[in-house]
Sequence to fold (481 residues):
Amino acid sequence: MNQMGWIDRVIIVAPNRILGTWVQEFHSHCPRIFHITVWDAKARQAPPPPVTGTHQLHVILVNFQAFSTPGRKTKSGRESKASGRWKNRQALLKWCNPIDKAAFVIDESHGIKSPSGRASNMIVSMGKQFPYRIILTGTPITKAKRVYDLWMQWQFLKPERFAEFETIAKFKAHYGRWIDIEIPDRRKGGKATRKFPKFLGVKNFEELQQRVRRDAFIVRREDCFDLPPREDLVHYVELKASRPVYDQMAKEMVALLQDGAISEASIKLVQQLRLTQITSGFVVTDDGETRRIGFEKANALEEILTDQFEKGQKVVVAARWKADLDIIEEMAANLGFKVWSIRGGVKRTDSDAAILAFRAEEEPAVMVVQPAAAGYGIDLSTAATMVWYSHTPSWVDFTQCCDRIALSRNSTTFIHIVARHSADEVLMDTLANDGDIGKAILRNPRALIEGVDLNVGADSRFSDMMKHATKQMGKQKVRRS
Fold:
């Protein structure tokens, strides 16, 4: 677009963690004379540098937080439009003048999926002023039940594609099957009830696919790269020391530790969190203390890392909880690995340095990652093995984190450490179901097998049906060839 003379400036909105990756990729691949600015929280204290004739292309990289940071409160209690996100918006629009020579790009565009989000609404309303708009994501929907994640992304990209629905409620009604269920109203002591919409599954699925493909280039990795095969291995562990605490929490939503400390789950959601923590060998008490109760997964990981160290290999280990990250880092260091970590609370510049150091290291090394912090836009493909110590419930974070080693020159291996007969197995099934519908969204509608039920509610048969459909499509492609 820049070479054709259509644009001379572009704004790219991306997760904060991968702004450094964008800079590296521009320096590696952009053939134009460009000037790039990382307009992060520190840089936003001043306006973006002015566009000059010295460079052919001017780029501003900005994170999502720039559009969600509230302005100062005025005396009237309202949000000041002279600071915070409103000030950032105005500065960017002024920088883009004339706007007909500018493009607006959203990387990992599922970040604007929420219709009620501050950043989502500001980005969408701001984007409508730009003649060129692009969204980028490999995960347009974040869970099997959230096909409506597409709504806000298309409100930014091309709102007229779904113009007849007017609101997200109508969009949901057209592409989803819903029923109203009655649940006790706790606000009224549980005596009264209120209606709550329950999602049953997707409808008009092929129509949705066709509309999406009218505006999208859907490029699958296997179509672009001659990638080595992928192998997923499940390493089961038996809960021994942790089993009594696990069973008590599962049955009674409370666990009493040997020293008298108590860990209680007030609601089912907290109970699920507690159960997955217990499978990792620790529990959080009601006093906020983290207590170690078992080493089942840690012992399994030690065997895996010892084997990898003897082979002289690099390994990426993914874990959800801080207690897991801590014990993995200590274990890897004790085994003789060089260790780096990417987790919440680590500065972007420190993460960038850790990635470069890990990639350059020729000795056995371990990168310990938290999926939500290291799931996007970074390259750890000098490692061919990833170990999942504790899984995330987010299919987006899971699949994006796996993709960090997808471009390895060697065959990739994913080892999943799973506690047998526990919440770990349920979590794995959920991720598989979410992944099936996520991939189906990107599939060519013409390749769908007629009669396949695309109900992606709680039906456990969906995964098997999708696998059957995929197998049949593979046979059809062979015949057509």
